[in-house]
Design goal:
By secondary structure, chain A is of the alpha+beta class. Chain A has 2 domains: about 80 residues, Beta-grasp domain (Ubiquitin-like (UB roll), Roll); about 70 residues, [2Fe-2S]-binding domain (DNA polymerase, domain 1, Orthogonal Bundle), CATH 1.10.150. In chain A, about 30% of the residues lie in helices and about 15% in strands. Chain A is built from 5 helices and 5 strands; from the N terminus they run ββαβββαααα. In chain A, strands 2-1-5-3-4 form a 5-stranded mixed beta sheet, with helices on one face. In chain A, strand 1 and strand 2 form a beta hairpin. Chain A is globular and about 45 Å long. Chain B is an alpha+beta fold and about 290 residues long. Chain B has 3 domains: about 45 residues, Uridine Diphospho-n-acetylenolpyruvylglucosamine Reductase, domain 2 (2-Layer Sandwich), CATH 3.30.43.10; about 120 residues, Uridine Diphospho-n-acetylenolpyruvylglucosamine Reductase, domain 3 (2-Layer Sandwich), CATH 3.30.465.10; about 120 residues, Enolase-like, domain 1. Helices cover about 30% and strands about 25% of the residues of chain B. Chain B contains 11 helices and 14 strands. In chain B, the strands form 4 sheets. In chain B, strands 4-5-10-6-7 form a 5-stranded antiparallel beta sheet. In chain B, strands 11-12-13-14 form a 4-stranded antiparallel beta sheet. In chain B, about 50% of the residues are buried. Classes of the chains: A alpha+beta (about 160), B alpha+beta (about 290). At the A-B interface, strand 4 of A face helix 5 of B. The complex binds flavin-adenine dinucleotide and FE2/S2 (inorganic) cluster (FES).
């Protein structure tokens, strides 16, 4: 059941031979994108989240073949030339990383959130709701919410 | 790797029907959030998949000239939340949809999959039941339509015949124009949790009297259920506290909650009565407000 998929991963075009039974997380990890973590494997924890054409999906519960033709972003692609992305830097500034296993997935959801709501005034409740597909057992989430708030600040209207 | 034996990707509904007809054991795969979870090991029910994930004709919401809303089975819950037709006319569907899983699940999970999966807990079921939705299926013998209520046959069982694909869910104008509705999911967590009880209510109040009332519950029986006897009793009654009392004390007669590891039967009964009252009160409030605004 071998097929070829062509997509863009972190701005680089790739063409991969895959087995149709493989999840997107397996394919990404096999090809070196190991920021994609497999926690639960059933869509509960969000450790495997990546952006697919700008939208967060749990790559463990997503057939790799569905990513054919898509633009994929993973956490390792977010830093450019050794400089962390704005979201990654905010995670660092706010102590949002403890054991770090959930971080790559959460960073991608935060990135989607920040890009989607740029220029809007968002509530904490909105931040919480749109990060609800991730489980973090260390931080208690507060520092993660603060990191997202930090990213949203410069873009609020009137500033 | 997921454990299945054969895989065919369909580009259209007709191709999916042809592929399903060729192999009686094959089942449709839409968002996969129910199917793929079950494929981490051997599962005799899911050996052969017909992939309808990318069938574009299933991914739209339209309104026909007579006001009927046609919801493509392949719409994701995120897609429904962004659909102006749904937001403006049947927002109760999004009250159910937005309570499902978390954002990544809703970005992928489809409404057709939620219904066809047949779970007694499907969060889109109550809203669609109180909207009196009709299911449309297309198969080798053509198209057939039946009420959503009749589509449910038992836990995990729906009336999908061999070779059939659910193309859409239909809501007639008379079933939402003039009506207001509300859905509330009672669960242990605010997200990523299955309902302990889910309750939907729709009502139409004319001159202070109930012209129509519908109640739909999930996890209150082997399938999502309507409260037919209670609903019938209320027609023509004054929309007041007495009505709410009658409904609250009558709904259990229409439902069959049970014990499970999630919650005990008597606890569920308590939640059912509380939600019946709360959700109906909100639906009535919305209807009176909406009619005043017109
Ligand atoms: C982490 C997690 C949390 C969840 N939380 C919730 C929740 O809170 N509430 C809730 O209700 N659900 C929840 N679910 C379940 C799930 O997301 C839904 O039931 C989803 O809507 C199923 O849609 P799908 O497209 O993924 O279906 P699939 O998994 O692709 O299919 C499900 C079933 O429907 C059939 N099917 C799908 N489409 C069609 C069609 N067009 N015609 C005929 N048959 C079809 C398939 O053959 C299969 O039997 C959760 C799932 C996960 C993984
Ligand atoms: S590993 Fe994918 S959601 Fe947990």
């Amino acid at each position: 059941m071998i097929r070829t998929i062509s997509c863009t991963v972190n701005s680089k075009p790739v063409s991969w031979q895959i087995d149709v039974r493989m999840s997107l997380s397996e394919v990404l990890r096999t090809n070196g994108f190991t920021s994609v973590k497999e926690g639960c494997g059933v869509g509960e924890c969000g450790a495997c989240a990546v952006l697919l054409d700008g939208i967060a999906v749990d790559s463990c519960l997503y057939l790799a073949i569905w990513a054919d033709g898509c633009n994929i972003r993973t956490s390792e692609g977010e830093s450019k030339g050794g400089t962390l992305s704005e979201v990654q830097q905010a995670y660092l500034d706010n102590g949002s990383v403890q054991c770090g296993f959930c971080t790559p997935g959460l960073v991608m959801s935060s990135t989607e959130f920040v890009e989607k709501h740029r220029g809007e005034k968002v509530t904490r409740d909105q931040i919480r709701k749109e990060h609800a597909g991730h489980i973090c057992r260390c931080t208690g989430y507060e520092s993660i919410i603060r990191a997202v708030e930090q990213c949203m600040k410069p873009y609020e209207k009137g500033k | 790797m997921f454990d299945f034996n054969s895989y065919h990707k369909a580009k259209s509904v007709d191709e999916a029907i042809a592929l399903l007809s060729q192999n009686p054991e094959a089942i449709p795969l839409a968002g996969g959030t129910d199917v793929l979870v079950r494929l981490h090991g051997h599962n005799k029910n899911y050996r052969h998949l017909v992939d309808i994930h990318d069938v574009a004709e299933l991914k739209k919401v339209t309104m026909e000239s007579d006001g009927t809303i046609v919801i493509g089975s392949g719409m994701t819950f995120t897609g429904l939340a962004h659909s102006p037709v749904v937001c403006e006319n049947i927002p109760v569907l999004n009250e159910g949809g937005s309570s499902i899983g978390g954002p990544q699940v809703r970005n992928v999970a489809t409404v057709g999959g939620n219904i066809c999966n047949g779970a007694p807990s499907g969060d889109s079921a109550s809203p669609l039941l109180v909207l009196n939705a009709t299911v449309e299926l297309k198969g080798p013998d053509g198209i057939r339509r039946l009420p959503l209520y009749d589509f449910y046959q038992g836990p995990g069982q729906v009336d999908r015949k061999a070779g059939e694909i659910m193309t859409c869910l239909r809501v007639a104008a008379d079933d939402y124009r003039g009506w207001s509705a509300h859905y509330y999911k009672y669960a242990m967590r605010g997200a990523m949790d299955i309902a302990t009880i889910g309750c939907g209510a729709a009502c139409k109040v004319v001159d202070g009297k109930i012209a129509g009332l519908r109640l739909g519950f999930v996890v209150a029986g082997p399938t999502p259920l309507r409260c037919w006897r209670t609903e019938e009793k209320t027609i023509g009654m004054q929309a007041d506290e007495e009505l709410i009392d009658i409904v609250k004390n009558s709904v259990l007669g229409d439902l069959r909650p049970r014990d499970s590891w999630r919650a005990a039967k008597d606890f569920r009964e308590q939640i059912i009565k509380t939600l019946a009252e709360r959700v109906l009160r909100e639906a009535i409030k919305r209807n009176i407000r909406n009619t005043e605004m017109e």
